[in-house]
């Protein structure tokens, strides 16, 4: 099966071609101009998607060595995301499917991330523990199959990526915060400042707003107006903050591993690009003797390969979709099911 995937939920336009297990093309065009505004400007994002989508689809097909005639199905992100941005990729894909009589699969963006480990050569195995960390979501999930996802916990306030972005802005590192904090943290002392690690007792939920506030208080106290913040100070704050985030995330993963007997673990989403988090997640897998699958960097941030892959797994699972019944927008996954009792997987 050859699937064309289209993603446009935020500030990346991406088009991919997937042939069974092989990614033949995964082109990602990032809208870097948002840097000038300190964050994504929705209206500008939609316009930029419109400007590039047609040429990106042509380029992806050329890279894959395919024509539209070779495509069996088209999958496009139907949400969650910025409505105007989503509409560009979604309506483009739906129109193309209608005109060329292709199967059309509306894909939930979070499901795309959740199953992105399946783009790797070494695939995850069910039941699977997934930590999905992006700019908009922080989810701890037990995934029983391609159509059964159990939410164990989520953030009660900021998403992990959002916390990275806000703290980076707070200490003047700029946007996008995640990669900038990582670079600064590599040069800093992660034990310098004991930032709090939130633990909502006995639950799998996360909270990052207290941590964010304590970074703000620290900066205000240690560096009152006119006091220069040296590079070393930035680095130590970044390293100590990153350490606290990683610890908070891993703590809940460990709790889940002690409770549920899973076959493998997967770390996904934009924040999964963080090298400290990747290393700690791998170590946790080693400790519990679990197979660990973390997608390559190009599949952590927003990309269309994961959307094509999700479209493919849904079609393979026997799901069917109609071009007539419009599934837009799709902000909540219909494959989330209720939590099981411990060890009843
Ligand atoms: O999955 P994604 O590309 O978009 C959403 O669906 O939200 O995730 C973007 C998030 C941003 O908050 C960004 O700062 C964060 O992922 N991120 C990182 C790193 N690279 C991207 N966070 C920490 N360390 C990184 N290296
Ligand atoms: Zn995403």
Structure at a glance:
By secondary structure, the chain is α/β, with parallel strands linked by helices.
Structure characteristics:
345 residues; alpha/beta; Nucleotidyltransferase, domain 5; 2 domains; 6-stranded mixed beta sheet; 5-stranded mixed beta sheet; 9 helices; 39% helix; binds 5'-O-[(R)-(carboxyoxy)(hydroxy)phosphoryl]adenosine; binds zinc ion
Please provide a written account of the structure.
- It is built from nine helices and eleven strands.
- Helix 1 packs parallel to helix 2.
- With 345 residues, it is an alpha/beta fold.
- The strands form two sheets. It has a six-stranded mixed beta sheet.
- The chain folds into two domains: 153 residues, Nucleotidyltransferase, domain 5 (2-Layer Sandwich); 172 residues, Nucleotidyltransferase, domain 5, CATH 3.30.420.
- It binds 5'-O-[(R)-(carboxyoxy)(hydroxy)phosphoryl]adenosine (KG4) and zinc ion (ZN).
- The site of zinc ion has 5 residues, from helix 3.
């Amino acid at each position: 099966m050859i699937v064309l995937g289209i993603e446009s939920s935020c500030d990346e336009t991406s088009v991919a071609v997937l042939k069974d297990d092989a990614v033949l093309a995964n082109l990602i065009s990032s809208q870097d101009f948002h840097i000038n505004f300190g964050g994504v400007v929705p209206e500008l994002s939609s316009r930029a998607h419109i400007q590039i989508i047609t040429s990106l689809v042509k380029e992806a097909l050329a890279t894959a060595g395919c024509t539209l005639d070779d495509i069996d199905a088209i999958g496009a992100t139907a949400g969650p995301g910025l409505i105007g941005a989503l509409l560009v990729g979604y309506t483009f894909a739906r129109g193309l499917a209608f005109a060329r009589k292709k199967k059309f699969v509306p894909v939930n963006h979070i499901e795309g991330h959740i199953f992105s480990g399946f783009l790797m050569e070494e695939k995850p195995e069910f039941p699977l523990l997934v930590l999905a960390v992006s700019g908009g979501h922080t989810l701890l999930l037990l995934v029983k199959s391609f159509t059964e996802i159990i939410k164990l916990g989520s953030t009660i306030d900021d998403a992990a990526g959002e916390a990275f972005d806000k703290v980076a802005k707070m200490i003047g590192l700029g946007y996008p915060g995640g990669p900038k904090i990582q670079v600064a943290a590599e040069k800093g002392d992660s034990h310098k400042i004991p930032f709090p690690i939130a633990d909502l007792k006995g639950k799998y939920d996360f909270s990052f707003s207290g941590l964010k506030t304590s970074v703000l208080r620290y900066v205000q106290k240690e560096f009152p107006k006119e006091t220069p913040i040296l590079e070393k100070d930035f680095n130590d704050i970044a390293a100590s903050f990153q350490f606290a985030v990683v610890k908070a995330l891993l703590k809940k993963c460990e709790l889940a591993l002690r409770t549920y007997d899973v076959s493998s673990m997967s770390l996904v989403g934009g924040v999964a690009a963080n090298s400290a988090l990747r290393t700690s997640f791998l170590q946790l897998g080693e400790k519990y003797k679990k197979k660990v699958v973390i997608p390559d960097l190009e599949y952590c941030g927003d990309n269309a390969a994961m959307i094509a892959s999700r479209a493919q797994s849904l079609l393979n699972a026997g799901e069917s979709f109609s071009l007539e019944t419009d599934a837009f927008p799709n902000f909540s996954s219909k494959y989330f099911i209720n939590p099981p009792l411990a060890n009843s997987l």
